[in-house]
Design goal:
640 residues; alpha+beta; GIY-YIG endonuclease; Nucleotidyltransferase, domain 5; 5 domains; 21 helices; 19% strand
């Protein structure tokens, strides 16, 4: 037997030697008594002792046990299946840091058809908690769907083709006439008209067949009804059934047949690098691929066999529909304590499904190809996720180096201005966090004190108000401030920061490059940096410019949008009030009739005179006033 690592606590050493040779659950507790890892075993002594062998296991999770482990507690169970059920309950209860927790932040959508009512309800819910697999949860559940768009599309299709009710029982019992959904053809309207429960039950069964992947039977049944309606000269009913068949087939287009055996299967693939990876569950029904659940994880040093087992317990225990077969890729069981681990999982799944479930690892043939496809999907999903995450950080690192910043630009704030001839002057702040726009953090400023014709003064006011708020309210500030302007604005804000005592923020000003006809060259965008005479020029295709241009464009868009909103509130409506003879009532009448100020401006005097309250002289006055105003209006400046 392999030697064990000597433990600092002789009590733990004695505990390992005295563990029972029976199935059960073990709880590894930290120095403060909190569980840090929970697992199940067919043989508690063999399993727990395997964590402390002197060789053969280089997982970081194992190496930390020597310093983090305070106690080991075991619970003996009658069978390995009981141990699996108890393991899941304890993980839900304690949430150990080294165990798998793959619950999505939002949870996935599932579709449920209720029971216990003559007319069962169709509804869409987040997947339900089902702690006890033997509990009789009401209704039949389908999903979960990782794509909410796919779930809602399927839900609408069931609504439109089957006409199942979606209202609550209280609303259903209190209605005296059909609702709008009935008029739209999306509900049979049982609440206010007689409908045999057997007819509704047929619709429910059709919906169950479709959601369970057995759509061929449903299409065949609808086709027979369509032919019967056509033979009975009920052409409207036949057309309605034809449209249902077409909707079902349109929805099912693009679902490839990947399994010639046409079985209902879930195929589990895993790709892992260190403590991070992705698990993919391919949902195959009647041989067609309905979808793939992609579940990323990070910071999990759990053994692969435990990770797979705990994942499946969480996934199916939370309401996912269970097929008759679950195929596992060989990579999901690397380091498994015993191949019979699968039999316990199969018994637990069978209780949950109330029918046999085969959990197995294919070694050859078409099933092996399906497992390989799941593993390849997991690897591709991990690469895509890794590339996206690293790309943003690489760009920020490159920006930090190119601009010689004093800190990593985790949070970037960019400021811009917008004004029209010194009127309705506004400022804006756009924010990038980890390279991505954080729109909930955007801010806008109405210029209050600065001279409206001075971009430098307005920029100073905006930055002063922003950083006074940071200082007075102890808010977290930016790592990098970007000004959409040139050297003049940079110098003014440098002085402002010195007056306010702001020393822990990098500051740059971004000036747009302009095309030059000479030699066919283009002036690159320039970045002015404090303490540097010459600006830093950024290539048009560089990652650094991508980030700065992104936040600059966001700030410009936000500023111009706010400016237009103010103008639409004041200028565009009040300009009509400046015309002698036009009051609030006539102004509203003009805007309502012509749709906008532009429509009023483009109207001829003869068209204006057709409105009640507008004589020929007033029509000419309105036309001439707006024409003169259009000739004298200036253009919007973005303050750069």
């Amino acid at each position: 037997m392999p030697a064990l690592v000597p433990l600092r606590d002789q009590r733990l050493q004695d505990l390992l030697d005295g563990l029972p040779l029976r199935p059960g659950v073990y709880l590894m507790k930290g120095l403060d008594g909190t569980p840090i890892y929970i697992g199940k075993a067919k043989n508690l002594r063999s399993r727990v002792r395997s964590y402390f062998r002197a060789s053969g296991d280089d997982r970081a999770f194992i190496s930390r046990l020597e310093t983090e482990l305070g106690d080991i507690e075991v619970v003996v169970t009658p069978t390995e299946k009981d141990a699996l059920i108890l393991e899941r309950k304890l993980i839900q209860m304690h949430g150990p840091c080294y165990n798998v927790s793959l619950t999505d932040d939002k949870n996935f959508l599932s579709i449920r058809i209720g029971t216990g009512h003559p007319y069962p309800r169709l509804l869409m819910q987040r997947r339900r908690p089902r702690v006890d697999p033997a509990a009789d949860a009401p209704g039949r559940w389908f999903g979960p769907y990782t794509s909410s768009a796919s779930a809602r599309q399927t839900f609408r299709l069931i609504q439109s083709t089957m006409g199942l009710r979606t209202c609550t029982d209280a609303v259903f019992s209190s209605r005296s006439r059909p609702c709008l959904l009935h008029q739209m053809g999306r509900c049979l309207g049982m609440c206010a008209q007689s409908l045999a429960t057997t007819v509704y039950a047929q619709r429910v069964e059709q919906a169950v067949q479709f959601l369970g992947g057995r759509w061929e039977e449903m299409v065949d049944e609808l086709s027979e009804k369509m032919k019967a309606a056509s033979a009975a000269l009920q052409f409207e009913e036949a057309a309605r059934l034809r449209d249902k068949i077409r909707a079902v087939r349109d929805t099912l287009q693009g679902q490839p047949l990947v399994d010639a055996a046409q079985k209902d299967r879930d195929v589990v693939g895993l790709h892992r690098e260190g403590a991070a990876g992705v698990v993919v569950i391919l949902r195959i029904r009647r041989g067609s691929l309905l979808g793939a659940n992609r579940i990323p994880f990070a910071g999990l040093e759990t053994p692969l066999s435990d990770l797979t087992r705990q994942l499946l317990a969480q996934h199916y225990g939370s309401g996912a529909d269970l097929p008759a077969e679950i195929l596992l890729g060989a990579e999901t069981l690397a380091g498994a304590e015993d191949p019979e681990d699968l039999s316990a999982l199969g018994e637990w799944a069978a209780d949950l499904r109330r029918g046999p479930v085969r959990v197995w690892v294919p070694r050859r043939g078409p099933a092996l190809r399906l497992a390989q496809m799941a593993r390849e999907n997991a690897a591709e999903a991990f690469r895509a996720r890794l590339a996206t995450a690293s790309l943003a950080e690489d760009r920020l690192r490159r920006l930090e180096q190119t601009l010689r910043l004093s800190r990593f630009p985790q949070r970037i704030e960019c400021f811009d201005l917008s004004t029209l001839g010194g009127q309705w002057s506004v400022g804006s702040m756009a924010v990038l966090i980890k390279g991505a726009p954080a729109k909930s953090n955007y801010r806008r400023f109405r210029i209050q004190q600065a001279a409206p014709d001075s971009d430098v003064d307005m920029m100073r006011e905006v930055l002063q108000r922003r950083f006074r708020r940071i200082i007075e309210q102890s808010e977290s500030g930016p790592d990098l401030v970007v000004l959409d302007g040139g050297r003049g604005q940079l110098r003014v804000i440098e002085t402002l920061f010195a007056d306010l005592g702001v020393t822990d923020v990098d500051l740059v000003a971004l000036a747009k490059g302009r095309s030059e006809q000479k030699a066919g060259t283009k002036v690159w965008d320039k970045v002015f940096v404090p303490g540097r005479k010459n600006p830093i020029r950024l290539r048009p295709e560089s990652d650094e410019l991508f980030l700065l241009a992104r936040v600059r464009d966001e700030a410009h868009r936000f500023a111009v949008g706010y400016h237009r909103k103010l103008r639409s509130r004041t200028h565009l409506r009040s300009v009509l009030d400046e015309i002698p003879g036009v009051g609030p009532v006539l102004r509203r009448r003009l805007l309502t009739h012509f749709g906008s100020l532009k429509g009023v401006r483009e109207a001829a005097p003869a068209q204006l005179a057709l409105l009640p309250g507008v004589n020929q002289a007033l029509a000419v006055r309105i036309f001439e006033f707006l024409a003169e105003l259009g000739e004298t209006n200036g253009s919007v400046s973005n303050g750069s």
